[in-house]
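Practice set, problem 2.
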Amino acid sequence: MTQRNARSTIREVAREAGVSVTTVSHALSGKGIVAEATRARVIDTARRLRYRPNAVASGLRSNRLGILALVLRPLDTLESFLPEGVDYFLRFAGAASLSALEHGYGLMLLSDPTLPDAPSVSLAADGFIITEPVENDPVIDLLQSEGIPLLTVGKDLGRADYAAWIEPSTAKITKQVLDHLEENGARRVAIAIGTDRNSWNITTEASYRDWCSARGQEPIIVTQMETSGTLGGRAIGEELLSMTDRPDAVYCLTGRHAAGLMARLAEAGVASPADILIVAGSDSEQTRNSVPPISAIDLEPEVLARAAVAALVEQLGGVPKNDGGAGTDGRFIVRGSSSR
């Protein structure tokens, strides 16, 4: 049986030819103004790398397919597309699917379409929703080069002029959590954030630093990869236990980190909420089932999903969304881990 060759991506062709992704797209499609020498070089490079533009997407781009695509970017870096205990993505995808139907569209769920093994129909959609893009996200590069409408849930902070986005009010949520911890007696608050360079992590850290500066507190920031789950939370606990002047409250952005942190601290005799207050930035099965249950933010993915679909459909109807905005303020669920 002949093994199927992996397809090169448009970004690989651009890099090899020394041009932009947009130039590759224009050179191969015949659109736009490209110098003949450059066009020839791009075509030769594409042939050598066996790059094939998506025939389905290219051939149908001018017609309405009745399909929206959804790329849940954080899942591309996690160990599974069904991370244990995390229901945010299931709730988002379910609400987005039903909302798309209400607008007369179907919804196609995709992983990163820039990968070499992406399905050949990956770009065959009228428009894309991308959740939590990273800085200068290559998925946005690809879609923009192909002229495909898109909307992101979370701003790409590497694109100052990019406006088609909505997101939770991250700065407002962060201040609400930190104020709650302070009101419950915390005087030395730490945050534990992920390593993905997305708006959620970056904006939370910036808001936390501002909050600390206003109170004269030295920031205490611990990081762990999102994929590390509860084991990463235990590693956060180890780091805090090693500190001479240990914090008395922690805001963990992921629920799995928060649960692992609480478990490790309990093993060391540091109880919550008596000795340390803990809040998670995203509710999960682990936060709800910890003892005591962990206070958490319900980011209301259903609200975000409906807002994202509506904004993208509006864009497809010829009325582009020209300003970013907040989809929800979230819902702060106060539980035993942060109340005294």
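Problem 2, part (b): a different protein.
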Amino acid sequence: MSGEIADIVHLQKRFSSEEGVKLLKSSDLIGLGVAADRFCQELHPEPYRTYIIDRNINYTNVCVSGCKFCAFYKDSDSTDGYLISQDEIFKKIDETVQLGGRQILMQGGLHPDLKIGFYLDLLRSIKMRFPVHIHSFSPPEIVYFSELNDLPIREILTLLKDAGLDTIPGGGAEILTDRCRDQLSPNKCSAKQWLQVMREAHGLGIRSTATMMFGHIETLEERITHLESIRELQDDTGGFTAFIPWTFQPKNTPMANSIGERVWHGIGGFDYLRTLAVSRLYLDNIPNIQASWVTQGPKIAQLALKFGANDLGSTMIEENVVKAAGVSYSMEKEEVASLIESMGFEPVQRDCYYARLAG
């Protein structure tokens, strides 16, 4: 570990934003990895690392947001737009349960024709048929439901919870600064609204994950601003179960060619692992850090288990959003377990709250 990293990394104290930026600028990847792994071991001295079996069901790709980083969405008048029927969703859930899954993640576009009754009926119908945990509807969707139905965010969340919603995914965070959001997703919820949804959800007993999509137009300072916003909210609510950073995938997106004069190629494993390690060190109040094999592939995700991550995430029986951006990794349960084992840990299946499941 270089002297610079050693001078900054004192695991008994909280990092300032200035120190966080210095860490993100460091080229001492191994030093950062050692520090993050040491902190991870303090938080998770158990001899195992975790994963979950679930399915990402994208119930619609129709979206009015028009995010420049997204290759998945379609306009409402597009012939390629779709809305999955309830019967098809039930079939996907049944397949997931048969494969040992106990959770589904449902996310879709901001569909202009779907009122709150659609979602409440869907949730109730799923809970009537399947013993699954429903981890669904990221903050941009919640904000859009609120606006479309002219109901407060808290009321929308209460209705969804009563109908069967268990937890909320942290999608749609991207980078929590208005400068980035104004350029990348001006029609999506603001940084303040994203944080408001999470605060309201946590207050209602709905826990959530938090995410960060990086490697596009943000500065290193803005990455730390994002982490600081998450850390401050966690201090107040304690409602985040995990943090999941992943890298922007430019292929097939409106950003694939350029914004201004810059051409976007995406970033590699070095910056991903460095940012992951800094996230583990900076977010001292969030218990779990999840690796992103969906964007980085299995080998980099495996290394992440020594750079601060204690979880390999989902086996991802189905995934459509990242795939639309030209990145398509897939892993069976056995491969996930093998990656964990080869790093010297016992592979353990978990639930959405990171509790160990029997069997």
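Answer key, part (b): The longest helix spans residues 220-237. The radius of gyration is 19 Å.
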